[in-house]
Each structure stands twice: as structure tokens, then as C-alpha cells.
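ugh ok fine here u go
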Amino acid sequence: MFKAILVNKDDQGYRAQLTEINEADLPAGDVTVRVLYSTLNYKDGLAITGKGPVVRAFPMVPGIDFAGEVLESANPDFRVGDQVLLNGWGVGEGHWGGLAQMARVKADWLIPLPKGFTPKQALAIGTAGYTAMLCVMALQRHGLKPSDGEVLVTGAAGGVGSFAIALLSKLGFTVVASTGRMSEAEYLKSLGATEVIDRTILASPGKPLAKERWAAVVDSVGSHTLANACAQTKSDGAVAACGLAQGMDFPSTVAPFILRGVTLYGVNSVTVPRAKRIAAYEQLSQLVDLKTLDEISHEISLEQSIPYAAELIAGNVRGRLIVDVNQ
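structure:
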């Protein structure tokens, strides 16, 4: 038996609870992992609270990422005792995820624990930091240079935003942070933001084209915020979009793309090939200051995941929540 957060939807309604599960009930997979740490991401918050249609099968163990130690393996790529990491691949949505003390998954979804990180540090980065790195890599492929101008980061006080600021600052970029929590301005500046603006500036309907300001954007918000960010991006600039905290809609026009040559990169962190995942973590190992991980992350227990999920969806959580599943 092992402890897990289990989400159910039945005649009694939608609910998430801490419970004990028999190992025999684990889903199919060729690698069984003793989970050490998971995290609480926005998608996990939606799964636990039922605020969004994230869960595709019930009952479901949420948790879109985890780090742990291999207990059993029928795949030659992994041996008993190996430390491994998983981000995405639909775990916590269609396949039992990491908010549990055990998980069974496909070997193709795992990568070896990145060198230079402990399991806890890898999960302090987690899906949020890894997604932020993928966004930065998209801007790097675009050819963006610090001399090109300011980079806007929206949803700045969240996990993706916090890491995007830290990574871009480390690479020498001038970063402007957009947030709905101006009380977090000092925190955002400590990560490397040179200016902090209120999200209301971007959150309402705007013009198809606005005054050019941003050389690039990392957006985890979507909706009008993304539309306005594109409208304010300089000619031949780039926008990396990876989230929908404000909404899934994109109320924009083609004007920024055909009149200024702005490029919109969609960043998918879920089904990324293993080689690209490893490359992202190699960059993270070079760019992430371990002290920054302490500033960005906060540790909670497995049971605390349920109340914290509501706080996360309400926008009251700063940075990253690491879940010690054995606490």
C-alpha cells in the first residue's frame, strides 16, 4: 500500500482526497518508481479542484511531474536504483501521476536525473522551470540577443514566470515582469527583473497594433494579455506562449505577424522528445543558481496539496510548490 492523492468523479460529485492505494492497482507501464518529490503546478490545481477539464479518466492520481528511484524495470534503459525524472506525457491527466509515493509509467517518458541536481532540486525546477527553459530556447533559436531590447515576462510571480525571469536575466537580457501581485515586486527584482508592471495594463482588450516595445515575450497567461503582448512586440521579434492562466482564447489579429513580422512560438512541454528534454536540463544546470531555487520554491506535504491547489488557482501562490510525497 502507498499514499496518494486520488481524484474521483461519480454520483457523490467531484472530490480529491488523500488515501491509500494497493500497488497492484497501479496502471500499466514498464518502470515502477518510488516517488520522492512531485510538485503542484497550475494544471494540478485544476485537476484537484475540478476548475478545469484536465482529468480525462477517473479515478486519477494527479501530478504532472515527479522525481524518484526505480524499483522495478522491464526496460534496458533503466535499472533498479536509477534516479529518474518525469515531466508531462499526460501523467496526472490520463495516466496516474506523481502526487503519490509510487508510480508506474512508460520508460520512454523518463529521463535520468539531470547531473548536478538532487531529486528535490530537479523538482524545485519541475515542469514550470523546464517549460520556461523551453521558452527561452525558442527565443534563442529565433536569434534573440540582449542588445535587441527588453523582454516581457507575463504571469511573472508564478512558477514559469519566476524561472523565465531568472534564466533571461542570467543570459544578460533586460527583463520586464508583468504581475497581478505588485506586492511581489521586490521578489521579482531579486530574480533579475529591472521593472515590474501591473498586469491590468495588458489584461483588457487593446489595439491590433500598439507602440513597439518588446524585443520578445514569454507568456504563460494567454487571452488579451498575449494579444496585447504580440501587438507591442517589435518588428521581427518573437513571442513564446506556453500557458492560459487568463484564458484559452486569443483575441488578436494578424496585424503583428504580417505587418511587423512577429513570430509566435507555441511551446509544448508535454510530449517533447527525450533528447530535447535532456538538452533543456543541461542548460538549466548551467544557468540555475541553487540559491535561486530556494527563493523560488516552497516545500509542502502530500496532504497539503489539496488546500494549496485552491490557493494556486486563486493566484495566491508565489513561485514553486515542491511536494514531499513521503511527508
